[in-house]
Structure prediction request, 301 residues.
Amino acid sequence: MPPISLQRTLAIGSLIYAATLWGMMWYPYRLLNEAGVGGIASSLFTYAVPLLALGWLHGRKLQRARSRWMWLIALGIAAGWTNLAYVLAMLQGEVVRVLLLFFLSPLWTVVFARILLHEKLNRAGWAVMVLAAGGAMVMLWRPGGDLPLPTNRAEWLALSAGVMFALSNVISRHLGGVTEGAKSVSIWAGVVVLTVIGLWRYPGELDFIEQAGWGVWLLLLGVGLAIGSMTYAVQYGLARVPANQAIVIFLFELVVAAVTAYFLSMERMGLQEWAGAIMIVAASLFSGHMEDDQAKENPHA
Prediction:
């Protein structure tokens, strides 16, 4: 076992690695979409790669966790929708707006943690909810006084991805003692199952197979391997870094996405979006203090 200080350094580095790649991942998915590979089909192939290449390594770990299979299945469904909806939203919407709606997750984490982990909402928790909800209202508000709700399919997908991301994180915390490998397999399998269901409804997304060149298949393989490494990195980091520090590191994804979107797709945010973004980021930063306070109140939770 490496020293604790080295473990912490490796864990922080793994989270930075995952946040950086996730901030850029929208671009290869858009390239695949331009090549005729729809979001459901590309998600299937890119998540099947780590599942088939690495899933068999964790068979014994899954077997040892058989008493908690129902929770692993729940993790797979929640994380599966998170990743599928995230990809579809990135293909159909503006990158930064999608990510901001996705990072409303602290708001939903408060709710799910209360239900599943019986964590009481303290003052910091209320601040998180007010900041996150207020940021969403500012960002989504439209002239004319309409309700500040997502206005298109991409924004609804991003919002739902954030909800499921919060749920999957809470379930992962509930699965204390289950190895990172077993959780990773559940996540990959969850995406594959949901995409198979999606392709049953939209079989035309598989038409690309007939004319796809080697470049498309190599890109699918590369994205799949990157996703496999990111899943491991996130699970490794979350097990060794406090939640308040982890959420700050995850926010680096917003920076990477904003920069890449500006240079690769010329997307820009207005003053209203920036104001909402600051509130949402602040909510994410304060969410860690809520968890610390709760841990002091109930150290055995």
Residues 4-101+150-264 form one domain. The CA atoms of residues 290 and 296 lie 10 Å apart.
